[in-house]
Design brief:
The complex is a heterodimer. By secondary structure, chain A is mainly beta. Chain A contains no helices and eleven strands. Chain A starts with a strand and ends with a strand. Chain B is an all-beta fold. Helices cover 0% and strands 59% of the residues of chain B. Chain B contains no helices and eleven strands. Chain B has strands spanning 4-7, 10-14, 19-25, 32-37, 43-49, 55-58, 61-65, 71-76, 85-93, 96-102, 106-111. In chain B, the strands form two sheets. In chain B, strands 2, 4, 5, 9, 10 and 11 form a six-stranded mixed beta sheet that branches. In chain B, a hairpin with a 2-residue loop joins β6 and β7 (61-65). Chain B is globular, with a radius of gyration of 13 Å. The chains are: A mainly beta, B mainly beta. The interface between A and B is medium-sized, with 25 and 26 residues.
């Protein structure tokens, strides 16, 4: 039972490049979400999904896209990377809204 | 929008001393969750409080939910070096359980 798996663990991008952060869970959780963590700012919600085919914006959605075509996968796409997107990104899942979150190990992204 | 504030931002203690972190929400919360993140790790769920005035204990950790359901605290008795990390509180944003708002976290350092 792997839980929540995020890839890659580290990534360096140049300004303007695009990329996709992968997130997969094998717990059959309905709810999945993406957070970014910056020093002194806690965890801020980017996008979330309450089930396959349903996504919604969080607190800081600009510059990011998501889709949820399957229950297991919830990729996060950076369309045109900017230095302000340098951060640690965490994917999380839970049985449903309101249930405790299970976090992946994170992706450390640097945009130069 | 909803704000969740945590104090203090940093706390340095000697091993064996007690530690308390406080969490305050700008709105009434239906529930509050606490997470711990070890240095270099990902947040791990500790506990969820739902009832007004609720107190829960996990060994040396005591969690409390305020009577008005707008504040919460985490108290650690006789800290150990294994308690090092960042402690976050988190609460649902308004009526949307999907939007979990995290506090900025309290970074605990324990000196042996």
């Amino acid at each position: 039972n792997a839980g929540v798996t995020q890839t890659p663990k580290f990534q360096v991008l140049k300004t303007g490049q695009s990329m996709t952060l992968q997130c997969a869970q094998d717990m059959n959780h309905e709810y999945m979400s993406w957070y970014r963590q910056d020093p002194g700012m806690g965890l801020r919600l980017i996008h979330y999904s309450v089930g396959a085919g349903i996504t919604d914006q969080g607190e800081v959605p600009n510059g990011y896209n998501v889709s949820r075509s399957t229950t297991e996968d919830f990729p996060l796409r950076l369309l045109s990377a900017a230095p302000s997107q340098t951060s640690v990104y965490f994917c999380a899942s839970s049985y449903d809204e309101g249930s405790p979150l299970h976090f992946g190990n994170g992706t450390r992204l640097t945009v130069t | 929008g909803q704000q969740v504030m945590q104090i203090p931002q940093y706390q340095h203690v000697q091993e064996g001393e007690d530690f308390t972190t406080y969490c305050n929400s700008s709105t009434t919360l239906s529930n509050i969750q606490w997470y711990k993140q070890r240095p270099g790790g990902h947040p791990v769920f500790l506990i969820q409080l739902v009832k007004s005035g609720e107190v829960k204990k996990q060994k040396r950790l005591t969690f409390q939910f305020g009577e008005a359901k707008k504040n919460s605290s985490l108290h650690i008795t006789a800290t150990q070096t294994t308690d090092v990390g960042t402690y976050f509180c988190a609460g649902p944003s308004g009526t949307s359980y999907g939007k979990l708002t995290f506090g900025q976290g309290t970074i605990l350092t324990v000196h042996p």
